[in-house]
């Protein structure tokens, strides 16, 4: 059998690449290396700007040229690093050599020894990961989550007054509205989105064991913690003052747990919408040229929601593993996090793919109000809750002598299908006040939705 040409092993880099490509800008190997170059370059600019070890500040033109090393980072740099790492067997060292090589090209050999000065590889790596994950979360994942939230909110408003039979434990229950049920998901997801948006992206820059040992030998008079803090914060990160060789990854665990939490709420949404489609509450809008089944031409499968469900599970599996393992490092450092962190993009990628499917799927459904109405019309027994509650209130007010209203309604309705006429006859004979009786006689499954419509405004 002829061997296939080299193929992507992950579907994120193959079949689904178009849906997740924006993440590759940050969470790919190339994105990581660009961030590493950024950290190395900015450290050079910082050291020379502070005239450390007799250096002099660079000119604006020189600073611009240096920053172009990461601003214009491209395929030539990617290839150069691949060749160099094949020799060094060390990814960060290859980046250091790249920066040194470019310094020579720019005529800045005189500051070459400040490249990677007093740095352990993890000083560069932890800042680079913080920058790439921050960008991926803030510029790619969160906007896609918010697009789904916005779509849900629009649907919640559109269907705020569309009464439907609720099903607690899968059984007919007190009615609600479709808008209210969708608004619940909006509220849950928006709360998590705010938590993700408030994530602190921490960074350390303190040497081989986090103690500025080499730094203080090189210059005992410098306030290295202050320098470290200023540099980390200059990158838009939060300084971590107490670490081993590695930044402790606690912020990563917090972020991945939050994204995984969002995944699980979205999973709940996907399965609920799938169920509403199965029940006929939502019709799926046919898409031109699409095939639902290879043999049953009538079918429109809820593939968007099924695809989302599966990818959310995959994403949470990866992110849960990252959150659980990254917070542990043997003694002052081990390398288990090195290969683990290379899967951050996989975790975010499956979540982003799911969000893309949910966004599309929510735009391909239409509420069938007739189906909702038919379901309500065949379940008048759900008004038993309202009737027994009103009777209890009347008893307390001294307008009724009925004992055990709950048992009375249980005998009438439990496990039975009754209609409007049955309830009208029952209510008409009740020992309750006239106003209460009128309210109950006017009640229908369609109107028994409480404040569902108004509660949607809580999203404003």
UniProtKB/TrEMBL annotation:
<protein>
    <submittedName>
        <fullName>Adenylosuccinate lyase</fullName>
        <ecNumber>4.3.2.2</ecNumber>
    </submittedName>
</protein>
<feature type="domain" description="Adenylosuccinate lyase PurB C-terminal">
    <location>
        <begin position="329"/>
        <end position="449"/>
    </location>
</feature>
<dbReference type="GO" id="GO:0004018">
    <property type="term" value="F:N6-(1,2-dicarboxyethyl)AMP AMP-lyase (fumarate-forming) activity"/>
</dbReference>
<feature type="domain" description="Fumarate lyase N-terminal">
    <location>
        <begin position="14"/>
        <end position="308"/>
    </location>
</feature>
<dbReference type="InterPro" id="IPR047136">
    <property type="entry name" value="PurB_bact"/>
</dbReference>
<dbReference type="Pfam" id="PF00206">
    <property type="entry name" value="Lyase_1"/>
</dbReference>
<keyword id="KW-0456">Lyase</keyword>
<comment type="pathway">
    <text>Purine metabolism; IMP biosynthesis via de novo pathway; 5-amino-1-(5-phospho-D-ribosyl)imidazole-4-carboxamide from 5-amino-1-(5-phospho-D-ribosyl)imidazole-4-carboxylate: step 2/2.</text>
</comment>
<dbReference type="InterPro" id="IPR013539">
    <property type="entry name" value="PurB_C"/>
</dbReference>
<dbReference type="InterPro" id="IPR022761">
    <property type="entry name" value="Fumarate_lyase_N"/>
</dbReference>
<dbReference type="InterPro" id="IPR020557">
    <property type="entry name" value="Fumarate_lyase_CS"/>
</dbReference>
<dbReference type="GO" id="GO:0006188">
    <property type="term" value="P:IMP biosynthetic process"/>
</dbReference>
<keyword id="KW-0658">Purine biosynthesis</keyword>
<comment type="function">
    <text>Catalyzes two reactions in de novo purine nucleotide biosynthesis. Catalyzes the breakdown of 5-aminoimidazole- (N-succinylocarboxamide) ribotide (SAICAR or 2-[5-amino-1-(5-phospho-beta-D-ribosyl)imidazole-4-carboxamido]succinate) to 5-aminoimidazole-4-carboxamide ribotide (AICAR or 5-amino-1-(5-phospho-beta-D-ribosyl)imidazole-4-carboxamide) and fumarate, and of adenylosuccinate (ADS or N(6)-(1,2-dicarboxyethyl)-AMP) to adenosine monophosphate (AMP) and fumarate.</text>
</comment>
<dbReference type="Pfam" id="PF08328">
    <property type="entry name" value="ASL_C"/>
</dbReference>
<dbReference type="InterPro" id="IPR008948">
    <property type="entry name" value="L-Aspartase-like"/>
</dbReference>
<dbReference type="InterPro" id="IPR000362">
    <property type="entry name" value="Fumarate_lyase_fam"/>
</dbReference>
<dbReference type="InterPro" id="IPR024083">
    <property type="entry name" value="Fumarase/histidase_N"/>
</dbReference>
<comment type="pathway">
    <text>Purine metabolism; AMP biosynthesis via de novo pathway; AMP from IMP: step 2/2.</text>
</comment>
């Amino acid at each position: 059998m002829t061997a296939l040409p080299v193929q992507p092993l992950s579907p994120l880099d193959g079949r689904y690449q178009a849906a997740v490509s924006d993440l590759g800008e940050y969470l790919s190997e190339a994105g990581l290396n660009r961030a590493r170059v950024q950290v190395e370059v900015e450290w050079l600019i910082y050291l020379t700007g502070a005239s450390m070890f007799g250096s002099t500040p660079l000119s604006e033109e020189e600073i611009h040229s240096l920053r172009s090393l990461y601003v214009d980072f491209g395929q030539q740099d990617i290839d150069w690093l691949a060749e160099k790492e094949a020799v060094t067997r060390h990814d960060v060292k290859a980046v250091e050599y790249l920066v040194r090589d470019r310094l020579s090209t720019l005529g800045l050999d005189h500051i070459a020894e400040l490249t990677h000065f007093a740095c352990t590889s993890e000083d560069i790596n932890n800042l680079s990961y913080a920058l790439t994950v921050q960008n991926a979360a803030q510029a790619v994942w969160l906007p896609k989550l918010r697009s789904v939230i916005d779509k849900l909110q629009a649907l919640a408003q559109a269907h705020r007054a569309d009464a439907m039979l609720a099903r607690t434990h899968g059984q007919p229950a007190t009615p609600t509205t479709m808008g209210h049920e969708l608004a619940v998901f909006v509220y849950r997801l928006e709360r998590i989105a705010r938590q993700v948006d408030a994530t602190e992206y921490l960074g350390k820059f303190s040497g081989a064991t986090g103690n500025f040992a080499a730094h203080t030998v090189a210059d005992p008079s410098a306030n290295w913690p202050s320098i470290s803090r200023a540099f980390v914060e200059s990158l838009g990160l939060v300084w971590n003052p107490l670490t081993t060789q590695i930044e402790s990854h606690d912020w990563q665990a917090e972020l991945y747990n939050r994204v995984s939490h969002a995944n699980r709420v979205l999973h709940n949404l996907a399965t609920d919408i799938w169920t509403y489609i199965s029940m006929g509450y939502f019709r799926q809008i046919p898409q031109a040229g699409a095939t639902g089944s290879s043999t049953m031409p009538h079918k429109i499968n809820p593939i968007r929601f099924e695809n989302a469900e599966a990818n959310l599970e995959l994403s949470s599996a990866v992110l849960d593993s990252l959150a659980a393992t990254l917070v542990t490092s043997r003694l002052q450092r081990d390398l288990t996090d090195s290969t683990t962190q290379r899967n951050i993009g996989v975790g975010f990628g499956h979540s982003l793919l799911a969000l893309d499917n949910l966004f599309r799927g929510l735009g391909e459904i239409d509420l069938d109000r007739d189906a909702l109405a038919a379901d309500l019309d065949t379940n008048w027994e759900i008004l038993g809750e309202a009737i027994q509650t009103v009777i209890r209130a009347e008893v307390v007010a001294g307008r009724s002598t009925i004992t055990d209203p709950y048992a009375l309604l249980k005998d009438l309705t439990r496990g039975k299908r009754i209609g409007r006429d049955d309830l009208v006859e029952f209510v008409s004979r009740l020992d309750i006040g006239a106003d209460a009786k009128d309210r109950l006689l006017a009640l229908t499954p369609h109107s028994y939705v409480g404040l569902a419509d108004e509660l949607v405004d809580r999203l404003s």
